[in-house]
Amino acid sequence: QVQLAESGGGSVQAGGSLRLSCAASGYTYSSYCMGWFRQAPGKERERIATIRSDGSTRYTDSVKGRFTISKDNAKNTLYLDMNSLKPEDTAMYYCAARRSDGVCYLAHISTFAYWGQGTQVTVSS
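Below the sequence we write its predicted structure tokens.
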């Protein structure tokens, strides 16, 4: 059974940094499209970044240059390095996996079959 578990969230001041991790079990990352999403109270879940099996990445404009998605296939772990954090980055952050990565960043959110439980990130001004 595929399971994803996020960790690394917390509270930081604006301008600070955090590293989120997503550990997977039940499958290997190497053949999946992986993504980080976030959801703030009262808002829809937003796609932040994706990484394909070949390592190619894409980001939403609001995090480009500040966030970096990466993965360690040997550890079956996905990461999101977040720098220059802003109060508007405050949200619950989720990792998700999609079996096919022919279409990854543009894949509909509903096609990401596996989700973690989320980790809260709070950025204060």
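The mean pLDDT is 94.
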